[in-house]
Amino acid sequence: MPIKIPAALPAYETLKQENVFVMTEARAEHQDIRPLQIAIVNLMPTTIDTEIQLLRLLGNTPIQVDVTLLRMGSHESRNAPPGHLERFYVTFEQVMHNRYDGLIITGAPVETLPFEEVDYWDELVSVIDYSHDHVWSTLHICWGAQAGLYRRYGIEKQQLPEKLFGIFPHKVHNPRNMLFRGFDDEFLAPQSRHTESIQETIRKHPALSVESESDDAGIFIVTAREGREIYVTGHLEYDPLTLDKEYRRDVAKGLPIRVPRNYYPDDDPARPPVVRWRAHAHLFFSNWINYVYQETPYDLATLE
């Protein structure tokens, strides 16, 4: 089954060309089913790229998904095309009385700032608090994971000695966890961050469970409330060239940046990267969607 998105959304044509099953709103009106309601808080500066990455993964399941794109009304984006957010996104105030099967909170380029200094922090706090009893399962990605762990459990973040940047092997602690059905014992995933939530605090917190980690990159996936809260420190959703674009952007700006590890053949940026995480990315998101589908009450009004 497809994801339902507006036909005018730039991601629609891209995904259609990739043979991802997408459905327009007009066609979806004739479907006699209860699709999953998934909201995405897109905080990434690469607005359209991030839409495509997440919608591609959400569209690779047999379950129809209705997607609501959320923006922070308290923040003026300088990166989205003019009028794009106003046309395709809604603010939290517009949906704060709705209930959702799932919610995704993305990363954001603000990780070196204290949380309270982010201009939309108060609004994001309202979204995180709202998700506790209005959303069945919330998936936090990168800085979104740090923000969720800080808001819910008071876990601080700290600066890394240098940017954690590249493709790293990660281990699965519990193969029976619903998120890791079909996973290998070890899998690869992209990381791109300057900070981390303090790992020892996470390990000692009785409400949190470390589900996957890396010898080189540290904790990768943390869960709470039996999967209703999921925190992912990296970027399984990244496209083949996302790290390449980040690397070349920083080089052009003269910023201190190392070649992303385990990404280019022989660590040579002149050679195209080899994608080695795509299958597990699709599997992870499919497992999450299946979990949400199986566990969410049919009537979202009864969700607690």
TrEMBL record:
Main location as per UniProt: cytoplasm
* SUPFAM superfamilies named in the record: Class I glutamine amidotransferase-like
Q: Which Pfam family, any one, appears in the UniProt record?
A: HTS
- Which residues does UniProt mark as catalytic? 142, 235, 237
Q: Which reaction does it catalyse?
A: L-homoserine + acetyl-CoA = O-acetyl-L-homoserine + CoA
Q: HAMAP family from the xrefs?
A: MetA_acyltransf (MF_00295)
PANTHER family, from UniProt? Answer: HOMOSERINE O-SUCCINYLTRANSFERASE
- Protein name (database record): Homoserine O-acetyltransferase
Task: Give the species this sequence originates from.
Answer: Gracilinema caldarium (strain ATCC 51460 / DSM 7334 / H1)
